[in-house]
């Protein structure tokens, strides 16, 4: 498909997606640069951009036949190595220009306009249409997106909004440590060797739900309620069924594999029902006239009434769907890297001890005194980005890597490939959090939460949740792993380990 098809609304709407959380913490508007004026003697035409495949549907058939979808991050990395720092890609309905280098990401930021656009997910949009639900900021574009986003910024990502839900996250992190101690006491050696994959899923869902809805799900208890287990299963099913639906229009998938489509719809229905139940609980609290206190993000949105109820429900549902695996997986990868890099683990533990030596602190102040721990999370996201790309549609013609790229073209920054590129990072395969604490220019190198006005709206919540979890875990346990080999990863709508590592936790007396 040529450049013209990329300018149509349908081409801009159809796509795969990742980097779920996308937005920006401030209310500022991205600067708009003057449209590039291609010079025939210098700038190469769009058609000259190296291309990874020439027939979109044959490429899609090849992906299905070889089960290549789970290796998209490796394929993209090899394509950059083979074709250079920019190439075109066509797979089914997906058409994009992929770029590798930070300064090209910066160029996209400068050309994103006041209404930045990201790829949508057709199956999610189809569910909203069929069930007559409103879409939230993840799926919206244009003025509708901006209206919702500016309201949500105040409660979800602003410093004043963030500080209110930090105690909720801290409480759940402390409870998870107690949960781990209980399991360790069942072993006479007091050692706990375990695959934490599902436990981290439960932790992140418990923490995010507490911050969003102001109520606990009880997922860290011995026997979670049937409703909580049903909710977890729905989230898992929604994520698992999204990947097969990324490259084929929902109308076609409903005929090709009706079970996947029905499972996807049923999962979203359950997730929306959970949001309905939480809204009803909050309204009951209001009606009882109990003393007013902070009880989560949704309650604040309902009280402020700056958004209609259906918009609040749509956004809270999307937040919930995006806040679980997208935080659980970086935590798993961080624990693994700290286990196989004990010198880094020791340095962070010493930083934690130094922070505590100054006496009790508010959670917000504590978080500001842990630069190495925060750098470790950033380093993990460099090596294992939750989303393997960040996407934008430039609002004007731009020149990238000396190629003319028309306005409206879907452009993707390859995060996995960038994080492991020697052109961008020295010793890219080495886990070295201190690389983020020096004086080197790291602009547009840490893009796990996106950039610009559609940077991850849940960024502050995710960062705080991960930092508090690791803070409490490292002050209570030494972490080790038998296998020091690299983890093979797979793309399942998010980046995850093919086989979760076994980690050993030894209590610190």
From TrEMBL:
Keywords from the named record: Heme, Iron, Membrane, Metal-binding, Mitochondrion, Monooxygenase, Oxidoreductase, Steroidogenesis, Transit peptide
Subcellular location: Mitochondrion membrane
Enzyme class: oxidoreductase
Name the UniProt record assigns to this protein: steroid 11beta-monooxygenase
Family the entry assigns: Belongs to the cytochrome P450 family.
Residues annotated as signal peptide: none
Gene for this chain: LOC107116366
Main subcellular location: mitochondrion
PANTHER family reported in the protein's UniProt record: CYTOCHROME P450, CYTOCHROME P450 11B2, MITOCHONDRIAL
Keyword Transit peptide tagged: yes
């Amino acid at each position: 498909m040529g450049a013209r098809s990329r300018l149509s609304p349908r081409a801009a709407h159809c796509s795969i997606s990742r980097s779920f959380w996308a937005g920006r913490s401030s209310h500022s508007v991205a600067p708009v640069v003057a449209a590039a004026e291609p010079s025939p003697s210098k700038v190469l035409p769009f058609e000259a951009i190296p291309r990874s495949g020439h027939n979109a549907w044959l490429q899609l058939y090849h992906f299905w036949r070889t089960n290549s979808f789970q290796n998209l991050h490796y394929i993209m990395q090899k394509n950059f190595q083979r074709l250079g720092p920019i190439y075109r890609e066509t797979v089914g309905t997906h058409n994009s220009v992929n770029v590798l280098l930070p300064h090209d990401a910066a160029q996209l930021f400068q050309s994103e306009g006041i209404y930045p656009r990201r790829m949508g997910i057709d199956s999610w949009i189809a569910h909203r249409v069929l069930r007559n639900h409103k879409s939230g900021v993840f799926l919206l574009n244009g003025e509708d997106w901006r209206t919702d986003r500016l309201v949500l910024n105040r409660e979800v990502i602003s410093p004043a909004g963030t500080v209110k839900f930090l105690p909720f996250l801290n409480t759940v992190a402390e409870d998870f440590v107690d949960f781990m101690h209980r399991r360790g006491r069942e072993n006479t050696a007091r050692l706990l060797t375990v695959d934490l994959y599902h436990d981290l899923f439960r932790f992140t869902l418990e923490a995010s739900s507490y911050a969003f809805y102001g109520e606990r799900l009880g997922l860290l208890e011995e026997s979670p309620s049937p409703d909580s287990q049903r909710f977890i299963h729905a989230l898992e099913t929604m994520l698992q069924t999204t990947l097969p639906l990324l490259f084929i229009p929902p109308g076609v998938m409903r005929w090709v594999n009706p079970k996947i489509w029905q499972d996807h719809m049923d999962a979203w229905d359950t997730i929306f029902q959970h949001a309905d139940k939480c809204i009803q609980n909050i309204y009951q609290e209001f009606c009882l006239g109990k003393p007013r206190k902070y009880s989560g993000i949704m309650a604040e949105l309902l009280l402020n009434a700056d958004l209609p109820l259906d918009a609040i429900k749509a956004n809270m549902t999307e937040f919930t769907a995006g806040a679980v695996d997208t935080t659980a997986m970086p935590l798993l990868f961080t624990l693994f890297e700290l286990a196989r890099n004990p010198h880094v683990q020791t340095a962070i533990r010493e930083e934690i001890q130094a922070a505590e030596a100054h006496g009790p602190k508010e959670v917000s102040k504590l978080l500001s005194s842990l630069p190495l721990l925060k750098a470790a999370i950033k380093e993990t996201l460099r090596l294992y980005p939750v989303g393997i790309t960040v996407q934008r549609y430039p609002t004007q013609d731009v020149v990238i890597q000396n190629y003319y790229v028309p306005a409206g073209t879907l452009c993707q920054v390859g995060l996995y490939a960038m994080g492991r590129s020697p052109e961008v990072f020295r010793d890219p395969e080495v886990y070295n959090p201190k690389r983020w604490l020096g004086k080197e220019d790291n602009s547009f190198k840490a893009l796990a939460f996106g950039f610009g006005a559609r940077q991850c709206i849940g960024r502050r919540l995710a960062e705080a949740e991960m930092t508090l979890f690791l803070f409490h875990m490292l002050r209570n346990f030494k972490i080790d792993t038998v296998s020091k080999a690299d983890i093979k990863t797979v793309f399942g709508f998010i980046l995850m380990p093919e086989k979760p590592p076994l980690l050993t936790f030894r209590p610190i007396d």
